[in-house]
Design brief:
Oligomer: single chain
Helix content: 40-55%
Order of helices and strands: HHEEHEHEHEHEHEEHHHHEHEHEEHH
Shape: globular
CATH class of the largest domain: Alpha Beta
Number of helices: 15
Largest sheet: 8 strands, parallel
Distance between the termini: 22 Å
Radius of gyration: 20 Å
Mean pLDDT: 91
Strand content: 15-25%
Bound molecules: zinc ion
């Protein structure tokens, strides 16, 4: 089952479960101290065909407002990641919290999300992949969406093998997106990563940087937004590679170099980190150890889970709750009560690895 199909299934059953009061039964034991939300882009709805994977990465300004309204109605405290760290180490019992985090460093975080967050005085973190503002990262998932939507098939030769992907129907387009995405992330080698992208998209390497120039925050924008006390800038590596595919030396340099560059541009210490992609296939014990050794206060994954007191011993691998285009109030209720993490992790409460 694709991750989008799972999300659709969850949004279909969420109203039912929340109407019959199951969430209320779960919340006392499973809601935990609160949770950390994952966002990527906030953009105005687009009236064109999209690949579903991208709908997981984008929400509308209205949805951001609705998410804020939901947590206000539930009397959650809106807190920064510094405060999440403090609360994990504090013996006091406080209200439940929610922390907003945005991955990658898209320009719309500044132009669209920031005015909304500022209006409501919501603290937030933006995790920057530093080759985004350096305009040297390849947002291959956007090229892939474009190629799949405009073609009936995609063909290329790679390492003496011919690849053919049927894109003649919506279903085939979705399946081809998932297959090519897996090819790019699972057989990843730094040395030939851009060669592979060049071959798939039939573009010169320099032309692969076009999307990042259009979509990413600039260093000037990062510097400006970082001056607001509501904003925390976190690190998200240099290149957004799947870390599990790198050597330990490369992992440390991807993490450290991004931190140092952000500190140079903002003049502020970087104490929070998010793992690129963040699933078990891309970030696990070795990567967590690296983040711990580098003395970050927190490291966040994309494992789904709420935050519990026991996470104070595992602040380098905090789970999050992802907000996507089909997250409505009933899904939020399902997630915040702990019921959804309970189902996904088959009863496990404290999600780390
Ligand atoms: Zn990311």
């Amino acid at each position: 089952m694709s991750s989008y199909t799972k999300k659709k299934l969850i949004s279909a059953v969420a109203p039912l479960l929340s109407n019959i009061g199951v969430c209320k039964l779960f919340a006392p034991a499973y809601a935990g101290l609160g949770h950390i939300l994952t966002f990527h882009r906030v953009i105005k709805p687009q009236n064109k065909q999209r690949i579903h994977n991208h709908l997981s990465l984008e929400i509308s300004p209205e949805q951001l407002e609705n998410t804020i309204a939901f947590y206000k109605s539930q009397k959650y405290d809106f807190i920064s990641l510094d405060e999440v760290y403090q609360r994990l180490h504090s013996p006091k019992r406080l209200s439940k919290f929610v922390a907003f985090t945005f991955d990658d460093g898209y320009r719309d975080n500044y132009t669209i999300a920031y005015p909304i967050l500022k209006k409501h005085q919501i603290p937030f973190t933006i995790y920057i992949t530093t080759n985004f503002p350096n305009c040297k990262a390849v947002l291959w998932w956007y090229f892939l969406e474009e190629e799949i939507l405009k073609n009936d098939s995609i063909d290329f030769e790679w390492q003496a093998k011919h690849y053919h992907f049927d894109c003649s129907s919506i279903i085939n387009k979705e399946a081809s997106f998932d297959h090519i995405k897996n090819l790019i992330t699972r057989s990843f080698q730094i040395e030939d990563h851009e060669d592979l992208l060049s071959v798939i998209f039939k573009k010169e390497k320099t032309a692969l940087y076009s999307h990042v120039k259009a979509l990413a925050l600039s260093w000037q924008e990062i510097k400006t937004i970082s001056q607001d006390p509501l904003c925390t800038i976190g690190a998200h590596t240099v290149n957004h590679y799947p870390l599990s595919q790198l050597t330990t030396e490369q992992v440390i340099s991807e993490i450290n170099e991004s931190r140092e560059l952000i500190e140079l541009y903002t003049g502020k210490a970087v104490e929070h980190f998010a793992y690129p992609f963040g699933k078990i296939e891309q970030a696990s014990l070795r990567e967590f150890d690296a983040v711990k050794a580098l003395k970050f206060k927190t490291g966040t994954t994309t494992r789904i889970g709420n935050i519990f007191k026991a996470h104070r011993h595992k602040t380098e691998c905090l789970p999050r709750i992802s907000i996507n285009s089909i997250t409505d109030t009933s899904v939020l209720r399902l997630q915040s009560s702990g019921l959804l993490p309970f189902i996904i992790h088959r009863g496990r409460k404290v999600v780390t690895n």
